[in-house]
Amino acid sequence: MPIEPAALDELDILVDLWVDLASEQRPHGTHVRRTENRTTMRERLARHVVDGSVLVDRTDGDIVGFVSFERTDSDVSVDAVRGLVSNLYVVPGYRGAGRGAALLAAAETALRERGADVVQLEVMADNARALSFYFDQGYAEHRYVLQKRVGVESHTKANDHD
Question: Which UniProt keywords apply (predicted)?
Fold first, then answer.
């Protein structure tokens, strides 16, 4: 399973895979709209491809997985340079054979070479399979993101016992 940089002429395939990734996240509560973001993701992935921050896994010449990543620079003083894995996807029929781990390891290596001290990523809170995968790769919880819908009736206040 050779991991290598993606090429610009593979952009349509990468966007299709990103749409598949976004589709799989819908049951886990993502708010990302898949088809409405094709153009935006095409532009974003193109920038990543140009700077070498999209890696792909191929089988018989076909892309069966990809990872995109970037080094992020903070506008405040920090004690660690952060790398961010923005997307990691393996086509369902190719999962469970170490491809995701190989893609993630390659992204971590590239980020380390670009000066990152830590690598972060986001995962949907109820995506148990993804959480288990990332924990197995040595990732740990670092920050919680909480959300609340506003403008609709929801749960009663904690102090309301009526």
Answer: Acyltransferase, Transferase
